[in-house]
Sequence to fold (670 residues):
Amino acid sequence: MKQYTDTIKATAKRLLEDGTVDCFIGFRKGTMPMINHPVVITDAAKADTLYWDGNCGNNLALYLTGRKADEKIGIVATGCVSRNINLLIAEGQVTREQLYIVGAPCKGMIERRSVEAAVGHREILSVNEEGEKLIVEGKGFKEELNRADHLQRNCVTCRHHNPVEHNDILGSEVSEPAEAPVFTDLEEAAAKSDEDRWNFFQQTFESCIRCYACRNACPMCYCPTCFVDEAKPQWVGKSSDKVDTMTFHFLRAFHLAGRCTDCGACERVCPVDIPVRYLTNKLNRDAQEFYDYSAGLVAGERPLLDQYKLTDIEDFIK
Amino acid sequence: MTSKRFTKEAWGKAVEGLRESYKVWVPAKEGAHHFFKEYTDDITPDFEATKTRMSPKHTVFPQSERMFEYSLESSDADANIMKDTPKDYSPQAVVGVRPCDAYSFNLVKINFDNKEYRDPWWANRYESTTFIGMGCNEPCSTCFCDSVGSGPFDEKGLDVLVYDMGDAYVAKALNEKGEKALAAMNGGQDAAEADLTAAADMAAKVEAPSKVPTDKLRSQKLNDLYDADFWDELASGCLNCGACTFACPTCWCFDIQDESWNREGEVRKRQGDRIRNWDSCMFPLFTLHASGHNPRGLKVQRVRQRFMHKLKYYVDKYDGGTLCVGCGRCVEACPVNIDIRQVFELMNDFSK
Fold:
């Protein structure tokens, strides 16, 4: 991780100094354990504040949309982030020429909630990554955990840890697991009766506070006005009514059909721990099964629902 | 004023018994976090809980509150006539509230109940609420209450202060409301002078781990801070989600919405409601004018609004400190680690 951090600092400094980029998107070390602070810097003197470790699970591609068309941008990209970059280019939100992509082969991001649970929710004051270990310390305790046991759920099922598009790369590529990923939550939900699944949806989204962190953390949610913010006319109620809340979650997921890289940012940022990835991931699985499609793997490829192939299944046409 | 000593078991029973005369709110665990929940039969209170994920502001100021309603059934005699929605102002007690959270209601009161305006729903519910607070023996690492006018055993917002003495709780009534609540709690014994001395000695040693500077916020020039060079970078990583403002005990902004519904199975099938919902200065609809113009249309303007409101506008307008009680919730809830403790430093120590 230190090597990544050092290279990011040096690269950002060089790119900002020589004018290759106008801004650089990366992370700073957080003020608390297991969270870092995404930041857009424009001053080469601040390149030294950049940082990298296993707590960089926010998707930096988020910060690429809504920028000036002539702005040159440096960005650190893991596998999923690079796939989102491909998608944003295909959707006309940014051009490849604007970007300098610093690829970061990724070993998966740490799931804060899992580490917190592993130490019985005692307050954690520091977490250090030492190779394959996590050293977790708090007042009166110090525990050693296996890093691999505490990864974000999307990182466990990820098969694209290496950036698919980059100008520079921070280290050698990591190996991908050979076995196919298992989506236990999807399988469990699929086995439920309609009624049980409906109850499961209701329970899952019951605690939502409508802060929209999931939507706002997603690089693919860049509509100038989201349907839930539409006021003239109003599409969705703004109160904490459960029907409105579920409408938000379902429609948001459908907007991401064939556009989601399962980066996990939505689930990571939820302040009340809702497993929001369940819905998007169901659609990802459908895209995979029905169309053999994974979003953003190929530069220049149109989004799934924006293309037509003669091989598309059409058995729904009777 | 009365003081009582309860064994921990007796305390649990006393709080349960309080439900006979009060609607009781308690911290309870849901998933990985604690939340203030209405104490019903299926709730297990956890008085060892440190910081609830969301503040207890919803006990007085619900996230969504129906203000008025009207029938949309044309056959109803009162169709389309807006009426006050009946409200529940029966006595309620928030038990296990932390001193910083209780103090937040004192700050928020300036907005809802002052010489010019009185928000009947907030004020009536606040007046019907008794705050039975739990002092903080071990504040969390993100806490900075004693830098901003509160403290781990601050009594200002409380009616009863409870000290956790390890094997027992010592509860001290602080006013008439507290006396009344304590009288309704069965099972304790009158606390001895030694209990109170031990409690006070213990409390005197506790400090919040985090500190923030506030001494120069008042004297900073408002326009200098508004135009300060740090906002762009500070806001650059912000998601503009509402996690900070919704978790915050002092964020009081609300938005009023009209909604109508048509549901099968309800007594009145079609009804219109005027609802007020928590708003957030992070949201694109916040301060959006009817003309379509928004004076805070950009992310950086929204972020600046949040911090300027708490640490400058409020400070200047009321001269009573910041609109922040140092609970540290926004520090913990922010998905991108925007840390208000650093913003205190940026704003307080700013020089042009």
Notes: Chain A touches chain B through 47 residues (CB under 8 Å). Chain A has a mean pLDDT of 94. The radius of gyration of chain A is 20 Å. Chain A is about 30% helix and 15% strand.
